[in-house]
Structures are given as structure tokens and as C-alpha cells.
Amino acid sequence: MDDIVQKLAGLGLPGVILVILTVTTGGSSAAVAATLTALGGPFGIVGGIALLGLVTLVGDTVTGYGIEAILKGIYTERSKTESVIFLLKEIQGLPITEELKLKLKNQLSVAMITDTKEVRYLKKIEIIEE
Q1: Alpha helices, DSSP H only, in the chain?
Q2: pLDDT tens across 24-56, in order?
Q3: Residue 93 — φ and ψ, nearest 5°?
């Protein structure tokens, strides 16, 4: 068992996901392959395995910079092309702490809002204070 644990630990988060997949599918290799194929979408099992690799990359990045910095960067970039109101609604629905939601909302400052209709809406839902 120690050898298996060491090898799975070497895979990092994808190793954990693989173990969970195996357990939830009853240990059937066919079920694991089917799940990886489904996760891979049009790319099949290769896409599923690539997705496990992407999970590792994202996990390492979040570990290095922290979730707050990553999410702030994502929403700052998205605010260049998407409606601030849409992003604020999206942030409200995220499964994160209220403190982090507030920080993300503050990141999308009122200066980014140019439409007076958006300002009235934000005042109505009490995202900004007078």
C-alpha cells in the first residue's frame, strides 16, 4: 500500500481525484475510463486525462498566489469586456466567504461603472454606499 500511496501522492491533486473516481465508481476500471471519457468531452479519455493535468496546474497556481489574488485578477480582466453588474451578480453566487465576496466586489470599483443606470441599480441593491 505504501508504494501506491507514494505514487498517487506524486500525482498530487489528480491522484486524489483518481482515487475518488475509483471509489465512487465501485472500483471498476471500465467505470473510471467512462468517467474520464465523459470529463474529456469531445476529446474523450485523452481530454479527461488532460483535465486532470489542468487541475494540477490550477491547484499549483492557487497554492502559489492564493485564491484571492487569482480571483481578483480574473475579475479585473473580465471587467474589461463584460458588464460589471453581471460580474457582481456572479460574485454574489460564488460558494466563497462573504469577506472574499466583498473584496472581489470592491475590486470592481465604482470607477469602472460608466452607465448611470448601473449606478442606480447598484445603489438599489446596496453594493455601494453613499
Answers
A1: 2-11, 13-24, 29-39, 44-65, 67-78, 84-92, 98-107, 116-124
A2: 777 677 777 887 888 788 888 888 888 877 777
A3: -90, 0
